[in-house]
Amino acid sequence: MLIPEYAENIIVGVKHRDRFNWYISDTELWYLDYSQAGYSIKEYPEERKNISVLNEDTAITFLRNIEKYKVSTNSIKLNFLKELSSDREGAIYNYNPSILIDFDNQTFYSNYPESISFEEYIPDNWIGHFQRFSEQIPQEYRYWEEDGINYLTRKD
Q1: C-alpha distances in angstroms, 88 versus 3, 28, 145, 155?
Q2: What are the residue boundaries of the structural domains of the chain, listed by start?
Q3: Which of these, 11, 19, 28, 52, is most buried using a 10 Å CB contact count?
Q4: What is the pLDDT of residues 92-120, one digit of tens each?
């Protein structure tokens, strides 16, 4: 399994056809509209070959292309809790989910802490938000919670 590392790769939640999955990958894959983000066709990563605009129409192909980046909630949770016990601050940075894409409702949420504004590079009919989105994640996929404790926001 890929391990998230702050500013190297990110955790992305994807809702598509009423199913939810987590992915850990490079940030470059998650600009929904490459032309708006200034990418030329020559710069497209392999996983985005022929997918200039990632939307509800191109999602199936893209999600097949990134299958290797899919991770289970349980495996993320186990690694998060393990890292949390040895490096609390690092775990919080590394395991904070950065993006939520809801292909079913054409909505994009970014919680990415750096100066990249992913939410600005979205298809025309989409809505983009820069905000925390943990409440948008179904309870069973919240790897950062255990026994009612939110370890991403908990102050010790």
Answers
A1: 15, 27, 14, 11
A2: 10-150
A3: 11
A4: 999 999 999 999 999 999 999 887 899 99
